Structure formats: C-alpha cells, structure tokens
Amino acid sequence: MDTQTLLIVGFAFALGGIIKGATGAGAPLIAVPVMSSFVDVRFAVAVFVLPNLFTNLIQAIIYRRDLTQRWFLIILCLSGGVGAFAGSLMLYQASSMLLEKLLAFVVLAYIGFRALKPGWQLSIPIAQKLSAPVGFIAGLLQGLFGISAPASLPFLNAIKFPRKEFIVIVSCLFTTMSVVQLPTLVRLDLLTYEHLYLGGLAILPLVSCMPIGGFLLRQASPEVFDKLILLVLFCVALRLLLPH
Fold first, then answer.
1. pTM
2. C-alpha dist (Å) from residue 96 to 83, 196, 217
3. Are 84 and 177 in contact (CB under 8 A)?
4. pLDDT tens digit string along 115-146?
5. DSSP-derived 3-state class of residue 170
6. Can you say whether the dihedral through the CA atoms of 161, 162, 165, 169 is positive or negative?
7. How far apart are CA 79 and CA 76, in angstroms?
8. Residue 239 gets which letter from DSSP?
C-alpha cells in the first residue's frame, strides 16, 4: 500500500470522526465519498466496514438502556440487513465508473432533500409503517456505497427521537448492516486482509477526531455546522462527477 493512499484513507476517516463526534452519526457519509473521489468505490466501501462496525457497536452498547421503540428497531434492522446483502451483490457486479456517478447523485439527492425539507417531521405510527421500506433502502445504499445516511438519517431525524435514543437506534441499524456486509464482501472477494488492516488502522483517526467534532459544535451553532457539512459533500459530489 503506497503512502498516498494511506494519507487519503487517514484524512477521510479524520473528517468522518469530526462529523460523528458532532452529530453522533454520518461518518461514512463524509469518509466514503472522500475516499471514492481518489480511489475505487469498492476499496472505500470495504475499508469502512470494520470501523463502522466497531464504532457503532460501542455506541449501541453504551446507549442500549435509552431504547423504547424496540419493535420499530427490530423491523428497521431486519430490513436493513436484507438491503445490505442485496446492495453488496450489486457492488460486486457494477462497474467502478458507474458506482462513482451513482454515489455522486445519491450525495446530491441527500443535500437537496436537507435543503428543501429542513423541518420535515414524522409521527411514530407513520414511522412504524415506513420502517421496513426505509430500512431496506438504507441497507441497499450501505451495501452498494457504504453509506446509508441519505435514507436513514433524514427518516430518523424526522421522528424527533430524544438524542440518546436516536444514537442507539442509528447505531444498532449501522451495526446490523455491517454484520451482514462483512461476511458477504468476504465471500465475494471484495474484502481482503489489506482492507481489514487499513480499516483497523483507520479506527484511530476516526475515534481520535470525534472529540474535535464535539468541540467545534460547541463553538458554532448546529445550523452553521450542518451547512458546512453540506458544502463539503457538494464539493465531493462534484469531484466524483468530473473526470479525474
């Protein structure tokens, strides 16, 4: 593995750690597109599987007592697992160039949704009916691009869960999808010892930069921080769309 690739992976995970430290979620939404704008999408997805599993499993354990909507979470996780399996199969079959363009459009769609519907809200009864299809779509995106945020985060944010319950739900969902994704990618020869090694190393910048995100959030309003994240994502999406 060359030094340039190591630096790209480290930088991407450091940015992801800052976002996760500030919001409790969203690290893959930054790290995977940033890596994908420099290296192959399959490489980026494979490297993030282990750190995603590790950090979300820890969060799920820490906040497990704050969960109240258990049946909602079970349906969400089961459908997310099925979607992650299907997305991983699609990742294996699609071309790298097509994956880059699709990833860019997914990121742009997320930016557009956040800009147009900042106050969107769902009631629990409606959310329970939508949990299975949203979970499947989130899993599909996770398996295909390594990110489920365009489907999962707007949906969960709109329900207006208390912060701790939001963290345990999103952490359990991401953990379930990673548990399905990991052996599937191994079986498809998309996840190698090199990816696991880099993923293990990447946990350090990811975790060490999480306190920076918390600090920055205390210095600026959540609205300013949110707009900065969307700006970074927009620049990454443009890089994915342009020849490089």
1. 0.83
2. 20, 21, 35
3. yes
4. 777 666 777 788 888 999 999 999 999 998 88
5. helix
6. positive
7. 5
8. H
